[in-house]
Design brief:
Number of domains: 2
Oligomer: single chain
Helix content: 25-40%
CATH superfamily of the largest domain: P-loop containing nucleotide triphosphate hydrolases
Radius of gyration: 28 Å
CATH topology of the largest domain: Rossmann fold
CATH class of the largest domain: Alpha Beta
Order of helices and strands: EHEEHEEHHHEHEHEEHHHEEEEEEEEEE
Number of helices: 10
Structural class: alpha+beta
Largest sheet: 7 strands, antiparallel
Shape: globular
Length: 472
Amino acid sequence: MCSDVAIHVSGLGKVYRVYETPADRLKQMLFPSFSRMLNKTPPCYYHEFSALEDVSFTIKRGQTVGVIGRNGSGKSTLLQMICGTLTPTAGSIEVSGRVAALLELGAGFNSDFTGRENIYLYASVMGLSQKEIDHRYGEILSFADIGDFIEQPVKSYSSGMMLRLAFAVIANVDADILIIDEALAVGDAFFVQKCMRFLHKFMESGTVLFVSHDSAAVTNLCTHAVWLESGRVVEQGDPKSVTEKYLEQQYKKESDGMVSASAEEEVEELQRVTSDVGEASDYSDEDDFHDMRRDFLNHSLWRNDIEIHSFDPDSPSFGEKGAEVVKVTLRDAAARPLYWVVGGENAIIQIECQAYHQMDSPIIGFVVKDRLGQTLFGDNTFLGTHPLPVKRNERFRASFEFRMPILPAGQYSLCVALADGTQSDHRQHHWIHDALILTSHASSVSHGLVGIPMRRIALEPVAQPAGSQVQG
């Protein structure tokens, strides 16, 4: 295998024998032997299911590859064979480098062992010696951050704690190839953000192969995509092109009559409300901006309810600490603290800071990231404000007033930063990764990273020029 190739899969196939009953499995073990002794054709008590068939692709070192496909398409089977936990029926797999895998939660763990014992078991399976595990045990423990539960049997762990322990191990085994099968979906927001920061850093030099149903994640994170359908490779190549074709096929397969009666009534009501509002198209005052669908949506199951969790000053951070961020709040238009906000409403992010040394030109900024660590939006004070010199031991704050976008259901992280200098040349004093966590409980957004309020939506005929004819 070439030195720049991490994984090479050629003609891979996996066939399972499916038995109707346990008795059929026993018959299949015993009767064929008797039949051969009697020179008779042996009976067959099973039927075959092909999970993968003639799958071939090559992953180069440093690539991030996403595997997409519907449930049952063979994605997890493929990853398990690459990891060596399943044996192929046909074809070959060549892997160059140490592999760390996070497949089914609990895979590789002994449920009766404690967390500490499972760290040694799991890390040894991935190729580390006893001495190497001893040396890295503290870092693994710190990454997992499960406290005294490390001495409890893992059968008492929640799925989130299991994820913490498993990911902490694979993050500290110096792997060349990282394989993940959507296990991050069960983690809490703070830990998932920590994992994504590790992944982004790992992607700079390592090889990543992961399964995801999230086409946006594949498009944004991957350099290559493989689309599986019914155990076969339908398409592979550029992530954007592959995911677009995948989504096109999924839409074609969806039935047009899937909308329930109650949903149809809501849609009709939405059309009635928006048709009434649609006539008022002349907005002269920006302060009166109003999403034409807002009144309806806010009285339906599609209202974008966003919960705001409290500021955590102990969240992971870095910086020189010549000044610190001491408080972060989300407020309404009247500057009252919010613990709940609805997408489309005016909101203010307020970031309060404490200077320990004189600062000539402080810059305060924020970014909002989704659960995969993708930046959705953000801003800072450099371009929108005049320099504000700050004296030693003085407090100061920045306020960002904006209209809250409509967030798809899920969890989001608000990161804040404080620096001194200019946009291109500054000293980073304090960067907090997960200063606030936002949880979107419901949303009218079904596709895309965010939704935006609409000033007006219209559907109207276009007047034809005099004398023109429409071609039929």
